């Protein structure tokens, strides 16, 4: 007699001992079908839908199409201060609304229910929102080479936090990294090939590599005020992790939180909820913290912090490289973009003023 399918977790008690361990491992693998960032976003999206349903008397699971279409319309408009779920918030972008519907679909599939996004009415409402509002990407202001030089120059090299921030900025720009990629890097992921031309940063997973095949990013050595390798050496020495590509005294997260007393522990203790015991976890800067660091230094050189994100370094690398005459294919080798069409968006923006026809008028 087969013990599968039906929700696997409910059947562990009925499994023979010789296969129970394999079934538990299967549950673990099921939990890794989505990237951590996607899982976190989907969880947040589901909590929002649950709150909306609770406030308006709808069942959340399974969700009736009527509840879903009103939820989509609610997200597409600003709310009043009297709104019971999210008072006084601006309208969400069509791209965010589409992602939240994808999260709702995923939750239904996880429970072997028909995804609400398959209903014609839901599809028509989403398409109408896209047509009415438009789906142009909400790009962040790119931080160009001179911006990065100025930001790095503001980092205090007599403090551990300043050395970390400088390494973060220069490596983020020099490797065109996403903030999630910078957050996942470990000290052992940095190698320095013979010849001293730069470093190799190995990403075990990234947005374009959901299966975890890994990708090696070459980061060129530059002049001292823009050099990621030199900045990493200074930071890793301060953090006590060793040297890039050399003997590591302390493997683990590359970018870590610095305590107020200047200590940089390898692990930190925290509790998930009040009343729960303290747990130890690696002292790793979160993507959100990295974004805040980038925005703070960009604001210090005169940028509007609302227009800046950690993606600004990646966008700035691509834009600066295009303005300098680099080929799209070579830029793609660094950024890991799967489609050259995505890079063409940066190309169109960077070249908007070059050979402008109005200059002939």
UniProtKB/TrEMBL annotation:
InterPro entries: DNA_brk_join_enz, Integrase-like_cat_sf, Integrase_catalytic, Integrase_recombinase_N, Phage_Integrase-like_Recomb. GO terms for biological process: DNA integration; DNA recombination. SUPFAM superfamilies: DNA breaking-rejoining enzymes, lambda integrase-like, N-terminal domain. Keywords: DNA recombination, DNA-binding. It holds the Pfam family Phage_integrase. Residues 138-361 form the Tyr recombinase domain. The keyword DNA-binding applies. GO terms for molecular function: DNA binding. PANTHER family: DNA ADENINE METHYLTRANSFERASE, PHAGE_INTEGRASE DOMAIN-CONTAINING PROTEIN. This is Site-specific recombinase XerD.
């Amino acid at each position: 007699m087969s013990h599968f399918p039906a929700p696997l977790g409910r059947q562990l008690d009925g499994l023979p001992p010789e296969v129970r361990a394999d079934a538990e491992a299967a549950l673990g693998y099921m939990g890794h079908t989505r990237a951590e960032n996607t899982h976190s976003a989907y969880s947040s999206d589901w909590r929002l839908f649950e709150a909306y349903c609770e406030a308006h008397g709808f069942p959340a699971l399974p969700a009736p199409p009527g509840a879903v279409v009103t939820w989509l319309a609610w997200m597409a408009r600003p709310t009043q201060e009297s709104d019971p779920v999210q008072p006084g918030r601006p309208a969400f972008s069509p791209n965010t609304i589409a992602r939240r519907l994808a999260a709702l679909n995923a939750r239904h599939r996880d429970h072997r229910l028909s995804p609400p996004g398959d209903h014609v009415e839901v599809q028509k409402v989403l398409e109408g929102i896209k047509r009415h509002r438009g789906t142009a990407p909400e790009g962040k202001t790119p931080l160009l080479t001179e911006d990065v030089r100025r930001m790095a120059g503001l980092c205090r090299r007599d403090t551990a936090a300043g050395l970390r921030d400088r390494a973060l900025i220069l490596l983020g720009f020099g490797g065109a990294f996403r903030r999630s990629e910078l957050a996942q890097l470990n000290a052992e992921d940095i190698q320095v090939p013979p010849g001293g031309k730069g470093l190799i940063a190995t990403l075990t997973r990234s947005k374009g590599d959901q299966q975890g095949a890994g990708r090696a990013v070459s980061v060129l050595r530059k002049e001292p005020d823009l050099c990621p390798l030199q900045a990493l050496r200074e930071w890793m020495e301060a953090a006590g992790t060793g040297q890039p590509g050399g003997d590591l005294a302390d493997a683990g997260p590359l970018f870590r939180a610095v305590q107020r007393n200047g200590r940089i522990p390898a692990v930190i203790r925290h509790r998930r909820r009040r009343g729960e015991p303290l747990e130890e976890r690696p002292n790793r800067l979160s993507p959100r913290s990295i974004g805040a660091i980038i925005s703070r230094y960009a604001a210090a050189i005169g940028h509007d912090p609302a227009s800046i994100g950690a993606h600004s370094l990646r966008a700035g690398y691509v834009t600066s490289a295009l303005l300098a005459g680099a080929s799209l294919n070579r830029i793609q080798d660094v950024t890991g973009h799967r489609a050259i069409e995505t890079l063409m968006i940066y190309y169109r923006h960077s070249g908007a003023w070059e050979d402008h026809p109005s200059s002939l008028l």
